[in-house]
Design goal:
alpha/beta, six-stranded mixed sheet, 5 helices
């Protein structure tokens, strides 16, 4: 009986840890950026270097996270539809073919938030808990 209770406790603890590892991801822009929402496909194109300007003409400066985080894992799965290795290989090919440069990468979500707060064309994704009054979260809408 003890063995069953122990296994059940480990199973339940594992489920709780898995849930806590997921993040509510917020896509953020500079607080003065007029963008209120963005299509999921446009966001994918931005992070693949294929969309370079907002509709108002501002140059887009995408920010990425250098380290694995729950927000990055969720963003890649939901938006980019590539795993870490595929994304890295994509950018290696783009760099060596002269077709683009990857998004600027930051070691922490706090650094990414500071970057967006100081660059009007910047866009990033972070855990929603990292939001502050210096940046604005925008809604990601499904493609039509």
């Amino acid at each position: 009986m003890r063995k069953i209770v122990f296994i059940l406790a480990i199973f339940l603890l594992g489920g709780a840890l898995a849930r806590s590892a997921s993040a509510e991801v917020a896509v953020i822009v500079h607080k003065d950026n007029p963008v209120k929402s963005i299509a999921r496909l446009d966001l994918e194109l931005i992070y693949l270097g294929k969309k370079k300007m907002f509709e108002n003409g501002d140059v887009i400066i995408p920010a990425d996270l250098a380290n694995e985080s729950a927000a990055r894992t969720e963003f890649f799965a939901d938006v980019i539809h590539k795993d870490e290795d595929s994304y890295r290989l994509y950018w290696v090919r783009m760099i060596f073919s002269g077709k683009g440069q990857p998004p600027v990468a930051f070691r922490s979500e706090e650094e990414a938030v500071r970057f967006v707060a100081t660059h009007k064309g910047a866009i990033a994704f972070v855990d929603a808990d990292k939001l502050n009054g210096e940046v604005k979260a925008i809604k990601v809408v499904e493609d039509e």
